[in-house]
Write a structure and sequence with these properties.
There is one protein chain. By secondary structure, this protein is mainly alpha-helical. It has a two-stranded parallel ribbon with strand order 1-2. The termini are far apart.
Length: 97
């Protein structure tokens, strides 16, 4: 039998959205919030287009401390900024849905 085509689960035209979610609050290292811009500078959009995808590349989400912080945030001894990360993840999941 012949191999199944890649992306057979996608309808035509194949479409993808790039959603930049720059967040560093759960990491002990600086720089993880630069991931979306580094992927764009590396040509992610043009490479996807070259593979035949229609690409929607919107602006990065605002995951600043001011946007995600709340006065009710609880401090967990083993989870760094877990409330802010939870809110950011919720925002991202609402956009994806």
């Amino acid at each position: 039998p012949s191999p199944k085509p890649l992306f057979q689960h996608c309808s035509n035209p194949k479409t993808v959205s790039i959603i930049g979610a720059p967040m560093t609050f759960g990491q002990p290292y600086v720089g993880t919030d630069h991931g979306p811009s580094f992927l764009r500078k590396a040509g992610l959009r043009s490479k996807l287009i070259a593979l035949g995808w229609l690409v929607d590349d919107g602006p990065d989400l605002n995951f600043s401390a001011k946007a995600l912080a709340s006065p009710d945030d609880m401090v967990h001894p083993h989870a760094k900024n877990s409330s802010m990360i939870g809110r950011g993840t919720q925002i991202l999941s609402q956009i994806v849905e």
